[in-house]
Amino acid sequence: MVKFLMLLGNYEETALRSVSEYHCDPGYLLYGNYCYHLESEDVKSWQDAEDHCSRQQGHLASIHSQEELSFLTGEKRSRPTSGRAWVGLNDIKSENQFVYTDGTPADFLPWALGQPDNWQDNEDCVHLRGHNHAQPGLFNDDFCTSTREFICKKGGIFSQSCAPRWIQ
Ligand SMILES: [Ca+2]
Ligand SMILES: [Ca+2]
């Protein structure tokens, strides 16, 4: 019992001594362990948007859960623009085989009704529908050359710092 209490004491001391957290570069929002930039002032083609994100050590966003999607659509709704935004999902390489530019699995695909329709045999890049659309926040395949708002995503910056009154 004494030993157990000593171990507990050590554990609490360690927990108190350091504060670990993720944070983001300016212009990025933290959600979970990831950072997101919702670009609404500048519009780009899908490839230009991906290049822009990769210059900032990220990719166009991958989305893996309803919670993550709700976070992004909620943030978009709070902004003055309501435009469609590119994400990293695409079937450029092989028709109807959708992949993400960040290499994560396409495991959550909230397509809008009737999508993907590969309209004019030429829609290979995916955007989130704007919140002025009847089906906001759902996926639609689109012409990659269309210029749209976009969302970049990258890993959060992990930092460990000392709790108050502790020295590293
Ligand atoms: Ca396609
Ligand atoms: Ca479409």
UniProtKB/TrEMBL annotation:
Pfam families for the chain: Lectin_C (PF00059)
Signal peptide segment: none
Domain of life: Eukaryota
Name of the molecule in the record: C-type lectin domain-containing protein
Gene3D superfamilies per record: Mannose-Binding Protein A, subunit A
Domain C-type lectin: 31-153
Source organism: Oryzias sinensis
Database matches in PROSITE patterns: C_TYPE_LECTIN_2
